[in-house]
Design goal:
Chain lengths: 458, 507, 140
């Protein structure tokens, strides 16, 4: 009978072993070990769950059923960006990241047995430093949104001022995350409205919003609608004029082509690292990029783990370890720079492998390829004669906005889905406006088929 | 017993990948896209600085990472008995399941009708965790335990705000708590007020009573606590806090110690987080990604982050539900760490309610068994009442050993690495000197528990015979102790900084 | 050297300084300013010191304010103003060589020179500080 329990494969001790162990420590019934819990909350039997224990194969069948309720990704061409993106994960990444030495490891608090993951994280920090044009990158935050909020808090701690000025349109979710991180401690967020008929902020209004209380100015390049702000350098100077920090949010896939924020005066760079080798996974795990330039005092205000290189005392050779831990919650508790503990380490390792696999030419080809797909998509959409291309004069990277001449948007989207396409996502503040993004998966055929289907449907 | 003379890890002199630049080699080549028109980005926005990424062949990159992996230790190699970390075995089938393209290729902005399977999985996980904890609401957004804590205390804040109780700005936290608790409270706008433990390692009731006031927003409690001891007075404590107008947060890091045996909601807690990467067997990944889902009772449901996942029985449809009257909004850019959530669901489905309870009973048996094997050893002491059964973990102090031989908890931890084992958590909780905090988990076999006990006993002997051996340990793994002090004084945090600083040691 | 110090269970207490029970010491200069640091015991508790964060010269603090942070590998400690004071100068040499605090806590490892802006009171004599120290050591 006993052998029929499917979960025995995940227990290290058999029932008879457990009995023996309990005898050895003088306990006759395992429930004696719970005698200090108030009897009235002790459950007489195990709680009822939506499913009974499954064997491995039964579990696989259960997951097959779930998977079949999702659309097969081969049958759906998805024109979505917004920081996260569908990507092809090169085979070597899955092969390497499934090494148990890496993914079943704990945080590297014992560096002597963790040199592998520590070196890989140091390489992540180094490669993203190259990509962003900064000196230091931490070993990850949760995602772009939380990284942005933490960057704002960092700037507030450094400058001892209290306001974040936002120089880009933000998604509702990101705006909310920033609010949740800043408002409870009494810090303010000042948003600047957009120029008329433009996805960029009104520069005069931005100037007026920046003042002596400004701790940081935040610009997204590209922004949530996909557009690049040609005035980035000027905005950086506006921030620095009032001794505020200039925070830039990036799509790292753009940086093989687009200028890294280090070139136009960024003090802190944040962004979404998911598309650097991590499957999109319905939006998580993601990878919050957090980069800055080294300053002895300011680094003490930054959140997150940092991996450093040093020498091994006995051999004199190079070695790696977590450093500057006195900023972190396990030491500084209430005075820590952040509460972050678990981060997205394995996603960062994946990104290190991906960037190494791409190399400089691969990165440039990928960035340029995405940009050209977006240009081609825009051209094909314009050719339908039915799609209104928004902001044609503003440069963009791999996402851009359009209007479809439809009244029932829900119906339009579901019609397009039934024909195998996701036609972008309605913009958070105006569901007439769609933001479309491309990915490495897209061929000319996908884009042409999409344009042809739009011609039929519209 | 394991031989501490044997070599236990590869020791490769693997160069930094960043040294392998300008070779002309290629590895991953992106798919081509022929489009003859020029790029449409103005010159001032184009990259001017050279992008110094490595240039390696595919084989070179594979060897680099495989070699580095051989210099790393994880649960697949041996036990990781870190207290409060619940480093269980990570079932292999879960790794296969989450990589189904039907799950891994979906974009979070896709229409609901295209991702019914994923939404159903998220919904089922929520229902299962509600059943296990007794709570009625859940958010899956938090990406880690500390992120969940932050979310949970934000909910408490929103609750008091809505009731017009804006003066409640104090969060009570026992001195044995994880550092994340005070840090999360401060980020949510509270003052962290420390509550001392009594001599039995539990919350000091008198100190608690005198700290409660009209400024009390709530209390964050870890139960079982970080000593592995259950707060027996928990109902009383929770009532006192409620009577003072506060809410009670349960730090669920130690949920493995009561899972399936008792429900936190029945004890009077209002909100808790669960670390899926601890209790629910998803891999720790060398630091993350994890997931810190938050469960709440009816008092706090109306404040949960949007959206939650709901099910429309009539249409048989799972959907994003934004209908939360006083939602705090978002704490994550999308919906949380979905691939972690799927793994946790797979684990729960395999275990069932019955298996989860058995996991808890076994984990608690393992901890108490190992404790009995080592607690009477010369050099160690059990700081709190030995008659209290521990739950999933226990803490011993190496203070006697330090006094007698100069060998510290750190030295013991480092020496354990030479025994093909991983160190326990050390110097935590802060209220125990020379603490060794040990959590074997239910997935470790009896033979490993015995090996751990034997190794600890042997190390205590070595400490008396040859303390120098332990001060310099480990000797048989990939790395030796590192010059951490020089690094903290003059940090080198990237290849770029390394190039600038040019240290005097061998790369 | 031994004349200048009293040793208590391995910790040195310098005779010509005054102390706070939070382990700061001060010594009066001829110009009326005070030289300030933390005791040998405090330094040994922190272990290897890696960084000191100073306030700006000219900044003023009230007695009891945390005004300097001393960081070591696995700890971080606040230094409290022993009386109302203004910063005259800080020991900048600690930026490159924080280990001076470990080597010579009452000399080259001092933290700052401060000017009292109110009454200088409530300080402990070396003997009184030693009594406090013994209490702490018993508790351990």
């Amino acid at each position: 009978m006993a052998l029929e329990k499917p979960y025995y494969s995940l227990l290290g001790v058999s029932p008879q072993e457990r009995k023996k162990m309990l005898e050895e420590i003088g306990v006759s019934d395992v429930m004696e070990l719970f005698s200090d819990i108030p009897p009235k909350v002790i459950l007489k039997e195990s709680p009822t769950l939506p499913f009974d224990p499954m064997t491995e194969l039964e579990l696989v069948e259960f997951f097959n059923e779930l998977a079949n309720k999702n659309v097969n990704p081969n049958d759906l061409t998805v024109f979505l960006g917004g920081g996260v993106r569908q990507i092809y994960v090169p085979a070597l990444i899955d092969e390497l990241i499934r090494r148990g030495e890496l993914y079943t490891a704990y945080t590297a608090y014992q560096p002597e047995v963790s040199q592998g993951i520590l070196q890989l994280l140091f390489e992540y920090q180094s490669l993203v430093a190259e990509l962003t044009g900064m000196e230091v990158v931490n070993a990850s935050m949760y995602d772009w949104s939380t990284a942005t909020a933490e960057a704002a808090l960092t700037a507030i701690r450094i400058t001892k001022k209290d306001t974040l000025v936002v120089a880009s349109p933000l998604t509702k979710a990101r705006k909310s995350v920033i609010h949740n991180y800043l408002e409870p401690q009494g810090f303010k967020v000042r948003e600047v409205s957009l120029e008329e008929n433009s996805p960029l902020v009104d520069l005069e209004k931005l100037k007026a919003a920046i003042d002596d209380n400004t701790a940081a100015v935040y610009l997204e390049m590209p922004n949530a609608m996909g557009y690049l702000d040609p005035r980035a350098k000027e905005i950086s100077e506006l921030a620095h004029d009032v001794k505020a920090k200039f925070i830039v949010g990036v799509d790292p896939l753009s940086l093989g082509l687009v200028a890294p924020p280090g070139e136009y005066g960024a003090d802190l760079v944040v962004g979404e690292g998911q598309p650097l080798g991590n499957a999109v996974n319905f939006g998580g795990p993601l990878l919050g990029i957090f980069a800055f330039n080294y300053d002895r005092k300011e680094i003490r205000r930054t959140p997150g783990r940092l991996i450093g290189i040093t020498k091994q005392l006995k051999s004199g050779k190079k070695g790696f370890t977590i450093t500057l831990q006195a900023r972190e919650q396990h030491i500084k508790r209430a005075k820590a720079t952040s509460n972050i503990c678990s981060n997205e380490a394995l996603s960062a390792v994946i990104s290190a492998i991906y960037l190494s696999a791409l190399g400089p030419r691969g990165m440039e080809e990928l960035s340029t390829g995405l940009h050209k797909r977006a240009l081609f998509l825009r051209e094909k959409l314009a050719e339908t004669g039915k799609v209104e291309i928004m902001y044609p004069e503003i440069p963009f990277f791999a996402d851009f906005a359009v209007k479809f001449p439809v009244e029932n948007h829900e119906k339009f989207i579901s019609t397009m889905v039934s024909k195998g396409f996701v036609p972008g996502a309605p913009w958070d503040y105006n569901n007439e406006l769609y933001v479309l993004g491309v990915s490495e998966l897209h061929d000319k055929q996908h884009i042409e088929a999409f344009a042809n289907t739009l011609k039929e449907v519209l | 017993m394991n031989d501490p003379e044997y070599t236990h890890q590869a020791r490769w002199d693997e160069p930094l990948i960043t040294e392998l630049i300008n070779t002309g080699k290629r590895c991953y080549i992106p798919k081509r896209f022929q489009y003859d028109k020029d790029i449409a980005i103005p010159d001032n926005l184009l990259r001017k600085t050279e992008l110094r990424l490595p240039e390696v062949s595919e084989l070179e990159l594979v060897r680099h990472v495989v070699r580095l992996s051989q210099m790393n230790y994880g649960v697949d190699l041996g036990p990781v008995p870190l207290g409060s970390c619940t480093m269980k075995y990570n079932p292999k089938v879960n790794e296969t399941l989450v990589r189904y393209p039907e799950f891994s290729m979906q974009h979070p902005l896709q229409p609901e009708e295209t991702v019914q399977g994923t939404l159903k999985a998220m919904y089922l996980l929520g229902e299962a965790l509600k059943s296990l904890t007794g709570f009625t609401g859940i958010t899956l957004q938090p990406a880690a335990g500390a992120h969940g804590e932050f979310t949970g205390v934000l909910l408490i804040r929103a609750y008091h705000m809505l009731n017009g109780e804006t003066k409640r700005d104090e969060m009570l936290i026992p001195d044995s708590a994880h550092g994340t608790n005070p840090a999360s409270s401060v980020m949510a706008g509270f003052k962290a007020i420390e509550i001392p433990s009594d001599e039995k390692g539990r919350i000091d009731l008198e100190a608690l009573e005198s700290a409660l006031s009209e400024r009390t927003a709530g209390m964050m409690i870890t139960n079982p606590n970080t000593l592995g001891i259950f707060e027996s007075n928990i109902m009383d404590i929770n009532k006192k806090i409620h009577d003072a107008g506060g809410l009670v947060y349960l730090d669920g890091a130690n949920f493995n110690g009561i899972m399936g045996v008792a429900k936190p909601a029945d004890m009077g807690f209002d909100v808790m987080h669960i670390n899926l990467h601890k209790t629910f067997a998803t891999p720790h990944g060398g630091g993350g990604p994890g997931s810190g889902v938050v469960l709440v009772n009816d008092k706090l449901k109306q404040f949960l982050p949007t959206p939650i996942i709901s099910y429309d029985k009539e249409k048989d449809k799972y959907y994003f539900d934004y209908n939360i009257s006083h939602s705090i909004g978002h704490v994550h850019g999308y919906h949380g760490n979905i691939a972690v959530i799927l793994r946790a669901l797979a684990y729960i489905a395999r275990m069932g309610g019955e298996g989860l309870r058995e996991a808890c009973l076994t984990a608690v048996t393992n901890a108490n068994y190992l404790m009995h094997k080592v607690m009477h050893e010369d050099g160690l002491e059990l700081p709190q009442d030995p008659s209290i059964p521990r739950k999933h973990e226990f803490v011993v102090s190496a203070s006697p050993l330090l006094r007698e031989t100069g060998v510290s908890a750190l030295d013991i931890a480092k020496r354990l690495l030479d025994y093909k084992l991983h160190a326990p958590t050390i110097y935590f909780p802060l209220i125990v000197h020379e603490a060794l905090m040990i959590e074997p988990t239910e997935t470790e076999p009896l033979s490993i528990l015995n090996e751990m006990a034997d190794a600890i006993k042997n190390i205590l002997k070595e400490a008396k015979e040859n303390p120098e051996l332990l001060h310099e340990a480990p000797h048989t793994v990939a790395g030796y102790r590192l010059d951490e002090a020089t690094l903290a004084k003059h940090p080198i945090l990237s290849a770029k900084m390394l190039e600038k600083i040019k240290p005097q040691w061998e790369l | 050297m031994s004349d200048e110090y009293i040793e208590v269970e391995g910790y040195l207490v310098r005779k010509d300084c005054l102390y706070k029970e939070t382990h700061e010491w001060v010594r009066k200069n001829e110009d009326g300013n005070y030289i300030l640091g933390i005791s040998d015991y405090a330094v040994k508790m922190l272990k290897e010191i890696t960084y000191v964060e100073f306030p700006d010269v000219g900044e003023k603090f009230n007695a009891g304010d945390a005004f300097i942070v001393v960081e070591s590998l696995k700890a971080s400690g606040d230094v409290y103003a022993p009386f109302d004071l203004e910063i005259v100068s800080v020991n900048e040499s600690l930026e490159d060589e924080p280990e001076k605090m470990n080597q010579d806590p009452y000399g080259e490892g001092y933290l700052a020179i401060v000017k009292p802006t109110g009454a200088v009171e409530g300080l402990l004599t070396p003997e009184e500080y030693i009594e406090k120290l013994k209490e702490y050591l018993k508790e351990e």
